[in-house]
Amino acid sequence: MKRIAIFASGSGSNAEAIARYLADDTEVQISLILTNNPEAGVIQRARRLHIPVLVFDRKTFYESDRIVEMLLNQKIDLVVLAGFMMLIPNVLIQAFPRRIINIHPALLPRYGGKGMYGHFVHEAVVAAGEVESGITIHYVNEVYDEGEIIFQASCAISSADTPDDVARKVQALEHAHYPRVVGQLLGSQGV
Ligand code: GAR
């Protein structure tokens, strides 16, 4: 049995897409969804999906080893960041080398780094007049948005597209690919 933990801060549509994709796989379990945001939509989704949820605060995340210990105790094989908006502490990265992945709503290395998350990314892409955007799935290392890239997919942007339009196109790509890539990593890389 492979065990996944998902970190999410917002709506949780990617977390739900992953859960639904893996629902019939008897070899994979989503053991836990963790969030820093007590208002996050992902909490309701997790309840509907019967997945345990942990809401934690900043201090616990950055100033204690409790989250790392919990993930190790639960024998988590892969940590999946799905719209998680906090920097991952080094202690967590070191406990799960090449076992933490993230999805970013743009084609890294462009439109990554501090302040570039969620809707801000799509606003910047439209403001720059880009003709394409997309998604990047990557390993998480100590440098924000700079871990090794696993997969990218792109979509065309027209000059009439608003940031909301770009968000819709990018989310469609996310839901189509993130669950599949998670499934592949669990199968092929022995994580
Ligand atoms: C997704 O578009 C994800 O790529 C982005 O947040 C959104 C979460 O949506 N993540 C980042 O910006 C991380 N830097 P969701 O809560 O509906 O899955």
Treating each run of at least 4 consecutive H or I residues as one helix, how many helices?
Answer: 7
User: How many distinct beta strands?
Assistant: 7
Name of the top-level CATH class: Alpha Beta
- Please give the alpha-carbon distance between the first and last residues: 11 Å
The structure class reads alpha/beta
Sheet having the most strands: 7 strands, mixed
Number of spatially distinct domains: 1
Order of helices and strands: EHEHEHHEHEHEEH
| CATH architectural designation | 3-Layer(aba) Sandwich
Percent helix, as a range, is 25-40%
**Are any ligands bound, and if so which?**
glycinamide ribonucleotide
Gross morphology is globular
User: Nearest-angstrom radius of gyration?
Assistant: 16 Å
Mean pLDDT: 96
- CATH homologous superfamily descriptor: Formyl transferase, N-terminal domain
**CATH topology call:** Rossmann fold
- The side-by-side strand order for the widest beta sheet comes to 3-2-1-4-5-6-7
Strand content: 15-25%
Low-confidence runs (pLDDT<50, min 5 residues)? none
